[in-house]
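To illustrate the input format used throughout this study, we show a single complete record. The first block contains the structure-token representation of the backbone; no residue identities are included at this stage. The design step must infer an amino acid for every position from geometry alone.
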């Protein structure tokens, strides 16, 4: 029985196609096996870097939003007008008594210098008044002693003159002796009058001058204290330990009394 030509040709083509597919499959298997063998036998090269081990600080920062509870806080306000100079920034930690800012107190410093000059003058005046009083009292004492001394001399001269006169009347003393006794008495009398005529300053009036000078010194000291206090008010110090929470005025700005400047608090 003979098959048609077209059918035989188709069967032959299918056989060839199967053979080609089988051959390609074998080739692929062989290639995979060869690749695996090559990969197994090959040596891979890895680059390795080394470094010396050192102790270092590691700071781990976490950025987050939240709120801070403040246990205690205080507001610093300007007590006088002036230019502001800040010594801290927000977030700085400060200790109690630390200067956080300063105000320009050049005018107050000049007032303090003037007050100190006035105090020096008042103290010099008091010292002079006290010296005058001491001299007056000493002069009074010396004048009284001189009057007493010349009085004693005058009494002795009078007694001697009386004795010489008695002797002269009895012709037991000469005229010359009487004249000498008389002259001594006259000189003693003049000395006593001169001592009595000395007018020493009145200590009572000088004592009043001392009290007035003391009052001037007290007033001058008060003025110095007030001026020094004004200068000290130019320094804004931390009333508590804490953190600078807020600065309400700019550095170099001109502030007025009562103006809030810095808030410091102790965060929990």
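Output of the design step:
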């Amino acid at each position: 029985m003979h098959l048609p030509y077209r059918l035989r040709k188709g069967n032959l083509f299918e056989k060839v196609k199967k053979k080609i597919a089988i051959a390609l499959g074998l080739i692929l298997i062989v290639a995979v096996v060869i690749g695996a063998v090559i990969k197994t036998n090959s040596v891979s090269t890895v680059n390795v870097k080394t470094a010396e081990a050192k102790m270092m600080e590691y700071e781990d920062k976490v950025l987050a939003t939240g709120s801070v509870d403040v246990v205690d806080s205080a507001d610093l306000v300007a007590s006088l007008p002036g230019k502001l100079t800040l010594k801290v920034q927000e977030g700085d930690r400060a200790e109690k008594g630390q200067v956080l800012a300063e105000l320009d107190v050049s005018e107050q410093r000049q007032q303090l210098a003037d007050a100190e000059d006035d105090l020096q003058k008042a103290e010099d005046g008091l010292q002079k008044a006290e010296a005058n009083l001491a001299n007056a009292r000493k002069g009074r004492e010396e004048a009284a002693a001189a009057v007493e001394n010349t009085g004693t001399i005058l009494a002795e001269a009078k007694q001697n003159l009386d004795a010489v006169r008695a002797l002269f009347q009895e012709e037991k003393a000469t005229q010359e002796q009487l004249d000498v006794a008389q002259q001594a008495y006259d000189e003693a009398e003049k000395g006593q009058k001169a001592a009595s005529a000395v007018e020493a300053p009145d200590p009572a009036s000088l004592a009043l001058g001392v009290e007035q000078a003391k009052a001037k010194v007290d007033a001058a000291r008060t003025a110095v204290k007030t001026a020094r206090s004004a200068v000290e008010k130019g320094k804004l110090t931390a009333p508590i330990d804490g953190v600078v929470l807020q600065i309400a005025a700019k550095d170099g700005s001109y502030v007025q009394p009562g103006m809030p400047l810095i808030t410091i608090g102790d965060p929990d």
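Structural context for interpreting the output: The chain has four helices and eight strands. Residues 107-232 form one domain.
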